[in-house]
Amino acid sequence: MNKKLALISDFDGTISNKDFFYYIADEYFDNEMLKPWHDFLSGKKKHFMALAEMFAKLRIPRNELNAFIKNIKLDKYFFKVAEWCRNESIPVVICSAGNDYYIKKLMGQKIKKYDIKLVSNRGRYSEEYGLQMKPNEKYYDENLGVSKAAIVKDFQKKGYEVIYCGDGLPDIGAAKIADKVFARAELYKQCKKMKIKVEKLNDFMQVGKFMEGALK
Description:
Blueprint: E1 5-10, H1 20-28, H2 35-41, H3 47-55, H4 62-70, H5 78-87, E2 92-96, H6 100-107, H7 110-113, E3 116-120, E4 122-126, E5 130-134, H8 148-157, E6 161-166, H9 172-177, E7 180-183, H10 185-193, E8 199-200, H11 204-215
Parallel strand pairs: 1-2, 1-6, 2-3, 6-7, 7-8
Antiparallel strand pairs: 4-5
Helix pairs in contact: 2-3, 5-11
């Protein structure tokens, strides 16, 4: 029986070079707008609510926001790996505790082209109400809006070995149960601290080579 692999990856800071939140905060947020984030870091507020409150305060022209989003850099190998996965019938899932508004703007038609499944909180922008967020319905999580661990479990129940890529605290639950973990930044530190077997993620070519080897 052939091995079944699935690639599940966080978006912000993993596929993109830096979180959308940090990009937008550096450019548009003042200290008052960042208060919900400080409340999250001190444990007073859940991750989803903190992001939702801050994003809702954005009041810039839609065209300006969309142009700003297009400047975010993505891993130069991710789509090559996604194309290889499609050709090998390996599912690729992007899971995000951010929202799908900016992910769709960045990835465009390539989501459909490479059969990528996007599981994220919902995002909608208006100049009157800002960037509104709604939690994911199927994989709901009270803290993050979307449960990345539940996505990993779902694929494992279907017989897949899951390769998980992430960079932050919202990825820890998924990293704990994934079959193989590639990590950047805080997730890498936490995996080492918690003795979760992990490989430091440099780029997605590394992930692609691992999967090619796993199929041999």
